[in-house]
Every structure is written in structure tokens, then in C-alpha cells.
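step=encode ok
step=design start
structure_in=
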């Protein structure tokens, strides 16, 4: 379906067979709230998935995974990389308990540098996707900015989600310019109406409450034209249309791609 629409790249998310047990347990707890299950390799082996992707002329540049796996089992991605050819192992969110204070964010910068170094040894790149938290000032500091400033730009790359960045009261265009060359990946979707977290956006309950505000690219109020042009000018290499929950995906995903191609 996706290749017939015109999509050529797919980003996978775990847990995978080799993911940390904590990640598998965590997903099981989330699935009833989300209304969908984790995908991994869609119940296939990496070789089986490779054959399907080749048949449909699609590639996988990036996979989402969890912090436990990245810290303790990152070598497990080496074999999958050789089969599927992805370059990026991407963390979609920092666990709640690991980002309670500014000191936690300082420690996470060190953790990211270590993961990035280990990824590089395996021929991979480590990227971080922010889910909208850590973008508001705390004791005179923006936690996200403080953390990224302490990471090595050669080891830690970024994935910008236009929806969650906006929900966190930050401007995607400003961040693309501020960290020019650091953002290599982007999640694209639209928001209607533009709304901001009442809290700090730090937990899954706040995220799930925002799902109804997601809409097909071009149907919402985000300035996607400016965002995409700025992304292209500042080093983003891979763009992924993402709608976490959507009716008739065969229609919505096609409309998103058609709209983005016109920009």
C-alpha cells in the first residue's frame, strides 16, 4: 500500500526480538491505552522483511528503540543493520524517571554521548526524538537545550517531530536553525487546532490526550511549507509521515504525501 502511494522509506519501531525485556513489558502496558500493538519486524524475521521491502522498493533508514536496549544491548542491532541497511538507532523518548530534574538531563547528555560512541563503533548513528517535554524553562534553563549543548554533535543526532515540538510550546523552525546539521530525521503530521500542553508534556497520558488533534498534512494549522523548507536547508535527510491514530490510513497517508509533494 505505501509503495503504491509513492512512499520509499519506512521507519520501524520496537520492541524487536532482541529488545530489552523492560521495553517489551512497557509496550504491553501501553497497548490498551494506545489501541494498537508494537510492530518490530511485523512478526517476520529481518530477512523476511528485507525481501518484502525489496519487492516494494522501500528502504528503512531508521529504527526506534528504547533506552535500556541502547544502553545494554546495542550490539544486537549490528546484525539487523547488516540485513536491513538502516543507519540510525533512534530513541523516541527518555523514560519519565530519567528526566525528573535538570541534573537528570545533564546525566542524560553523558549517556547519549556513550550510546553515540557505541553506535559509531557498530557503523550506526544514534538519534534522539523529543516528545514535547523539556522545552519549557526550569530554573532559568531549557532542559532540552542544556542537554543537547553537552552532547557531541558527531555522536548524537536529532529527529524533530513537528507536532510534539509545537505542543511543547517550541517553534520547529527555530530549533531547525538553532541546531542546523544536527537534525537528520523528521516526523511530519499536522495539528488542528494548534494546542499546547497544559502541563510539561512529560508523560504518556498527556501525549494520548493530544492524539485527536493530529490530522493529515495540509488539513491542520501548522506551517508545514516553511518547516519542510527550513528542514531541507538545515540538513534533514529523511522525512516520515506519522499519524499515530487515523481512520482510513490508505486515504490519509496518500493525502499527506500528495500535499507535501506540492510544497
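sequence_out=
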Amino acid at each position: 500500500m505505501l509503495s503504491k502511494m509513492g512512499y520509499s522509506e519506512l521507519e520501524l519501531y520496537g520492541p524487536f526480538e532482541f529488545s530489552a525485556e523492560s521495553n517489551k513489558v512497557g509496550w504491553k502496558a501501553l497497548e490498551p491505552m494506545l489501541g494498537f500493538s508494537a510492530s518490530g519486524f511485523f512478526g517476520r524475521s529481518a530477512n523476511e522483511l528485507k525481501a518484502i521491502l525489496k519487492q516494494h522498493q522501500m528502504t528503512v533508514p531508521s529504527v526506534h528503540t528504547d533506552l535500556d536496549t541502547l544502553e545494554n544491548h546495542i550490539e544486537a542491532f549490528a546484525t539487523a543493520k547488516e540485513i536491513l541497511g538502516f543507519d540510525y538507532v533512534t530513541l523516541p523518548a527518555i523514560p519519565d524517571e530519567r528526566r525528573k530534574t535538570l541534573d537528570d538531563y545533564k546525566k542524560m547528555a553523558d549517556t547519549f554521548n556513550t550510546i553515540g560512541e557505541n553506535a559509531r563503533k557498530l557503523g550506526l548513528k544514534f538519534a534522539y526524538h523529543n516528545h514535547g517535554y523539556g522545552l519549557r524553562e526550569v530554573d532559568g534553563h531549557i532542559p532540552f537545550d542544556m542537554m543537547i549543548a553537552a552532547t557531541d554533535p558527531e555522536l548524537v543526532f536529532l529527529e524533530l517531530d513537528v507536532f510534539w515540538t509545537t505542543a511543547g510550546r517550541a517553534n520547529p523552525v527555530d530549533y531547525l536553525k538553532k541546531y542546523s546539521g544536527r537534525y537528520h530525521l523528521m516526523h511530519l503530521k499536522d495539528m488542528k487546532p494548534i494546542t499546547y500542553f497544559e502541563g510539561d508534556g512529560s508523560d504518556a497520558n498527556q501525549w494520548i490526550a493530544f492524539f485527536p488533534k493530529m490530522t493529515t498534512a495540509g488539513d491542520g494549522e501548522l506551517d508545514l511549507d516553511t518547516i519542510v523548507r527550513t528542514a531541507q536547508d538545515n540538513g534533514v535527510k529523511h522525512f516520515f509521515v506519522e499519524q499515530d491514530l487515523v481512520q482510513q490510513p490508505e486515504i490519509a497517508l496518500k493525502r499527506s504525501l500528495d500535499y507535501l509533494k506540492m510544497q
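step=design ok
step=annotate ok -> DSSP finds twelve helices and nine strands in the chain.
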